[in-house]
TrEMBL record:
PANTHER family: FAD SYNTHASE. SUPFAM superfamilies: Nucleotidylyl transferase. One of its GO terms (molecular function) is nucleotidyltransferase activity. Keywords: Nucleotidyltransferase, Transferase. NCBIfam families: cyt_tran_rel. It comes from Candidatus Methanomethylicus mesodigestus. This is FAD synthase. The keyword Nucleotidyltransferase applies. Residues 2-126 form the Cytidyltransferase-like domain. InterPro entries: Archaeal_FAD_synthase, Cyt_trans-like, Rossmann-like_a/b/a_fold.
Length: 141
């Protein structure tokens, strides 16, 4: 199992999910939990750029993903873990709060994956916001 916001999906997300899939070995199913809009608003203090169902559909369309589901409305991590029953939970480099919650339950092996490159959704958002005033951040063709 893997989880995230996936708001402004990028190559780092794909690499994270590819690595998460490999952890399960041959024939493993990768279920990805996509954060709800309300969870992003509550945790990040801003609304997501993309709607939750759009983010879920994009994630599910990625090759390493077998199934993508929306997270709990109240960010109920324990409920999602009970429903999915994962053997392994792959956490991204920035999911520190989730690691504590998941390890406390002890229902799955937790593996932290590293960051791929220097790309992040926050960085992309910042580049887009500043693209009108800084030619360095123009979209490449």
């Amino acid at each position: 199992m893997a989880a995230g916001c996936f708001d402004l999906l990028h190559y780092g997300h794909l690499r994270y999910l590819e690595e998460a899939k490999k952890l399960g070995g041959e024939g493993a199913e990768l279920v990805v939990v996509v954060a709800r809009d309300s969870t992003i608003m509550r945790r990040k203090g801003r609304p997501p750029v993309m709607k939750e169902e759009d983010r879920r559909a994009l994630v599910e369309a990625l090759k390493p993903v077998d199934r993508a589901i929306l997270g709990g409305v109240d960010f109920d991590t324990e409920l999602v873990i009970r429903e999915v029953k994962p053997d392994i939970i792959a956490l991204g480099y920035d999911q520190n709060d989730l690691e504590e919650i998941v390890k406390a339950k002890g229902e799955a092996t937790v593996v932290r994956l590293g960051k791929y490159g220097d790309l992040s959704s926050s960085k992309i958002r910042s580049m887009i916001n500043s693209s009108g005033s800084n030619s360095e951040h123009k979209v490449r063709r």
